[in-house]
Amino acid sequence: MRVLFVDDEPRVLEAIERTLFQLDLDWEVSFAEGGSAALAELEKAHFDVVVSDMRMPGMDGAALLGEVCAKYPHVARIVLSGQTDESAAFRAVKVAHQFLAKPCSSETLQQVIGRTQELRNWLSEERLQAVVGRLDRLPSTPRLFIDLSRALDDEMASADTVAAIVRQDPAMSSKVLQIVNSSLFSSGSAVSDVRAAVLRLGMKTIRNLALGIGAFDSLGKSTAQSKVAIEELQKRSLAVAQLSSRIAQGREDTDAAFMAGLVCDVGQLILANAPNTDGVDNSRADTVTHAEVGAFLLGLWGLPFRIVEAVANHHAPLRNAHDRLGLPQIVWLASCLVHGEEPNPDYMKRIGADELLPQFKGMIA
Amino acid sequence: MSEFFDELSLPELTLRVDALERKLRAKEKTIRVLIQRVETSSTEGHSAFWVLEQNIALEKMVAKRTAEINAQNEKLGQTLAQLRGTQAKLIQAQKLEAIGQLAAGIAHEVNTPTQYVSDNTTFAQKGVAGLITVLQAAMAVVQAAREGTIDSELIAAADAAVSKAKLPYLVKQLPRALEQSREGLGRIASIVQAMKEFSHPSGSEKKPVNLREAIETTIAVARNEWKYVAEVELEMAADMPLVPVLRNEFNQVILNLIVNAAHAIGESTAGGSQGKGKISIVGQMLGDHVEIRISDTGAGIPESVRAKVFEPFFTTKEVGKGTGQGLAIAYSVIVDKHQGSIAFETEVDRGTTFVLCLPLVVSAAAAQAEATS
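Predict the joint structure of the above. Result:
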């Protein structure tokens, strides 16, 4: 893996180089003292990750990452910024997959960068990486988008009202979790629950996100047909989310199960809406690929990793090392049942869930 | 800022002072009329008794009026004190606001060195652990050599420790990592110190201040505001004496002018992406006063707004970037509080220079006004 670090303060780069050298990683690292120098490096070699400061003289981080998104969309874009204000965070949201706040420990930095390598193991096709890398948001269900806009128009609207709308929509939920888990807003622990995310961000920030910077996509230009498709996908996803959360009761974190169920099919949203010019076979939306595409996006966005893992494996839970009813298995099972498919009986036996199947079937709303 | 006006707003205070002054004027007029009447009557040949009677009435009236005037005067004094308090609060409020705007920049100034100090100390900690294992292996070799029991196994262990610790890299990088950590901590300490000096209350009396030091502190505090768009140059005359100023208020004026200059340059260079501009601050002695010129290489002030720049609440900046108080406060501080002057020279597409003049000697009248306030 090749990583490029960009900062106008050479001491920051030197210190990062030292800590990475000590860690004995198999990464090839390069350093650039500014936006233009970084673009020159990108011309010279194939990179997988760019970690950039925001405020730099000349070409700043936002401009640089915008260029990277246009020219090298497959590259993971991470901001490492000393700015602490919300407007800076929002400028970063537009161009970066993840944003880390200085001071950031070398362990965190290494973990965040290392995760992108794991994601590439799941989705190795660079063309698909590029399709996902370019996205800064996902299409929302028009109905829920309107509901949210109305709720936000009301000065008195409570966080509960807003969270209740957002948590029905895979697109809005993913974006909110991306933001709340970025280190500019995070208090350290990963947030898997939309309600907790809305409470942490606060109504003002949610308003800015939705109405100010347009972090949610209203599907304004889509065809009626694709709007219907998205409505249907959202309904199914919500059903999978609810069932996952019920099955998880007493076994796994129900919030994480709900979220993993809700977003397990975002890959379909991505593939169905990918421009044909990218040479992506849209018909693959129904095959296993969408799980990897979805997981790649959620992983790039820095959602809690067990959710990403569950999404990646929700059609192939066998890939998971443990033979038990864990998060990926729960989402797989819920997805099978909502789609009216019979789960593989041998596998159900292996994870010790075969006898519970009738009980789970009874949980479908 | 509105909470500072809750007790009495500025316009309300002005109205009250006006009303009190009107009442006083009316009372003075009554007394004048009475005196005139006594004077005219005595010259018109009234009896002595009548004049005495009139005089007693007049005295009574004067005594009553005097008591009333004294009461009104006291009220007026209180109102004026309140007015001065409100003005002081207004300036303090604008300062808090300026510091609030600076806070995000200061956090950035501190977070950057913290990042590399923290990485370097992590590196040093692990590096020193490696050095210790190397040292222990080497000591074992020394010990064995002393006892004549040295064998290839010990030497191999020492070699392994050296290679595991990446000794050559450590030897080269450890001193640099520590040196840069010290430098980074120094940077953090100096920004915190500058912030402390900048915001430390300096009291309400003018004290002799080294303007170079005061301006340097302010430049340091505002560093994050200008460093991406401009270089800052400070040139103060070597013979510049200490100047009697209200240090806090003076700092605030310089801050407002530096931030304005940085914004002006930022606007004309697309945030510094079209090359950096220059802010120069030049101080010199001119007879009985000092002159400080703060110049930027921004786009200049358009003709249409030149007349309004010192008006309160006037701003051409986008919402959230300026409150329109900066230059109004600068005017009030320099002209009203220091009996100095503030003006500007501007040329479209070339830049703007603000010229401050401060008297070296506090005039007797100003000192008197200060003493009674």
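The radius of gyration of chain B is 34 Å.
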